[in-house]
Amino acid sequence: MVKLARILTSSPHPTGPILTAQIPTSSLQCAKLLSLADGSHAYVILTSIAHNASQFLSLGSSALTRANSLIETVTSPACPPEIQKKLLIFERDVTHLLSPLDGRTEVNKFLCIGMNYVDHCTEQNVPVPTVPLVFSKFGSCVVGPYEGIPHYGPRNDEGDVVATSHAAVTATLDPEPIVTSKLDYEVELGIVIGQTVPRFTSKEDASKYIGGYTVIHDVSARDLQLEANGGQWLLGKCGDGYAPMGPVLVTLDEFMGGNHGNDDDRFAGAGDLHIECRLTPKNGEAMVVQSSSTKNLVFSTPEIVSYLSKFMTLHPGDVIATGTPPGVGCFRKPDPLWLKDGDVVECEIEGIGMIRNEVVNCVEEGSFVPTKVDDSKPNAVEVVPSVVGPPSSLEAQEGLQQRRLKNTVCVVTGAARGLGYGIALRLALEGAKMIAVIDVNQEEIDHAVSQLETEVRQLLEGGNASDGAIFCGFACDVTNTEQVADTVRHIATISPTQRIDILVQSAGVVGQTSLLTHQVEPSNFDFVMNVNVKGIFNGCQAVLPYMLQQNYGRIINIASIAGKEGNAGMLAYSTSKAAVIGLTKTIGKEYALNGITCNAIAPAVVRTKMVADMPEEQVKYMTDKIPMKRCGKVEEIAALVAFVASEDAAFTTGFCFDATGGRSVY
User: Fold this and answer.
1) In what order do the strands lie in the sheet with 409-413?
2) What is 177-228 written as a DSSP string?
3) Alpha-carbon distance 164 to 47, whole Å?
4) Cβ(224)–Cβ(236) under 8 Å?
5) pTM reported for the whole predicted model
6) Is 290 in contact with 326 (CB distance < 8 Å)?
7) Which one-letter DSSP state was computed for residue 296?
8) How far apart are CA 2 and CA 572, in angstroms?
9) Which of 502, 217, 513 is nearest to 354 (CA)?
């Protein structure tokens, strides 16, 4: 379980708000740390895993595993003080706790469900709905858990807010700063989507796409919603500041089999959470105005996600407010209860926490908590890069490992082991910002990501460790065209720069060996060609649209000397690698005017697990042809990849680089 929190600190972070995991100070196992703690919470920095909550959720179980490992490390008494100092933030250094999702850059869809509590329907004496009632808010409604709710109410000569029939009917016809005189409260459980939800997802499968839950205060201007011009639902629900959110986003595992649910719970862990809203009038006493349980939901959280998927694709960071229990102001008897300036509303849900927002008459321009927003990053899945051409700070430099790939987003296939793993490590040491590790087995991928993070930390210790790459791992069958396209699209969406700069394709298979052509099984030939050729084609076709948009890209395909000379007894493998070289030369020519280079590297035999699994006589046959009489090293090939990917090789495209120990003669 991770409680994701977005914070600002007294020492501003260069990238703006910091993604953290909120932890209780009681979890600190070091006496010295406990003595430094000055509040009930501390915060563990998660920016080595993801830059924001939606990106974190989209990484799935691997992000959770890495975050929990990081939390365990930082809170351990054995953790070195310098690591704790770098990764742990105490409450005294937190200046603002922001909404866990940034409304402008992370929330693409903000959907709401009306009439979704049985007791709320009873309160209104209306039938319980048979299908969800859906409306929407905007991401711009989102504010932090402790920010002000703007009122803009009409006032009398003494400056007091007064009720009118529906104050905003004339709001667009005169310059008066009047919006509503009937501001209302609604506490709601918020679903945050963690993984892209396919269309027509069943309710049985919907839970796997829920990233977690948060608290939402669905503020409503009832005169606009229910009275003005026959009912202006959009205006009544979508005002700036009409969706306080937080204080944290709690990942779903806390509720599914955690402290509040079980794995087969049809409510996805939200089957019986206490939900409450308290109102403290200005100069008055606090009172509970809403109190219920999510067991009274008409439609469960998986049912809601399933229903919405009939009409639209939901993406990581999308928010769904699941409805409010009875007790809202507009239905109170004998008189409605409207919010006034100075009132304080507290919304709390079991297992998540409480948000506390004061009603203020107006919010002056710029008075909201300052969050650093990059307006060039769209929320839509169709990504338009913020920078055209090479990533910022990427330039040709002399020397070994001089961070020649700084700020790049890289994709490496076949990277869970062997050559691909070594390439991913080298790209990180060259300054890559994010490296997506692609292979077929998620467990092996997660292990590789963890090992890569450890190696980079060790190798960069005392250097640029704080700027280490973000590693993320994805299981993907490179022969599946749609799966490859979806994976690349997902990587582009979550990447910190909204780009894909470098693709290195090292996924491959050898197939059957030590066979003459008439002995080769056609099915094995097809299998090798499918992985080694179609897989390369799929990867190129998936990344090229992104590279064309940004007018920059580097594609490096791992071929083989067997593709140039042919190895006896390896018909399928040699044929496939020859095809890779031809494909590479074609793409290099086609996109030469678009800032995109495509090159191949043709190693001789390299000592990897794949080679280790080959018959010894086959390996000897290959090394006997090498003047150096040895296998190549993974590090040697990775170094060549880093060069080809850098600006040092910008004038070379459609070329096949050899790494053969002297074997190649052309």
Assistant:
1) 470-475, 434-439, 409-413, 502-505, 553-558, 596-603, 656-659
2) ----S-EE--EEEEEEE-S-B-TT--TTTGGGGEEEEEEEE--EEHIIIIIG
3) 49
4) yes
5) 0.61
6) yes
7) G
8) 48
9) 217
Where b means 16+ CB within 10 Å and e means fewer, 352-387 reads bbebbbbbbbebeeeeebebeeeeebebeeebebbb
Q: Which residues pair with 21 in a beta bridge?
A: 4, 44
State how far the Cα of 76 lies from the Cα of 81, in Å rounded to an integer.
Answer: 10
Contacts (Cβ under 8 Å, ≥6 apart) of 509: 527, 528, 531, 532, 573, 610
User: Alpha-carbon distance 221 to 242, whole Å?
Assistant: 9
110-114 and 133-137 as β-strands: parallel, antiparallel, unpaired?
antiparallel
Strands (DSSP E) along 229-374, which ranges? 243-251, 274-280, 287-293, 319-321, 344-349, 353-360
Structure tokens at 108: 């693409």
Predicted confidence (pLDDT) per residue in 59-95, tens digit? 888 889 888 888 988 888 877 676 677 788 999 899 9
Q: Which regions of 445-587 does DSSP assign to beta strands (E)?
A: 470-475, 502-505, 553-558
The pair of structure tokens assigned to 528 is 């090798």
- Residue 136 CB burial class (10 angstroms; 0-12, 13-18, ≥19): middle
Quick one: which of 471, 457, 452, 547 has its CA closest to 503? 547
Residues 6+ positions from 298 with CB-CB distance below 8 Å? 115, 116, 117, 118, 121, 128, 129, 132, 323
Q: Are 120 and 323 in contact (CB under 8 A)?
A: yes
Token pair 């700063």 is found at 177
Tokens of 447: 């292990």
pLDDT tens for 385-441 read: 445 566 755 544 444 456 899 889 999 999 999 999 999 999 999 999 999 999 999
H-helix or E-strand spanning residue 20: strand 18-24
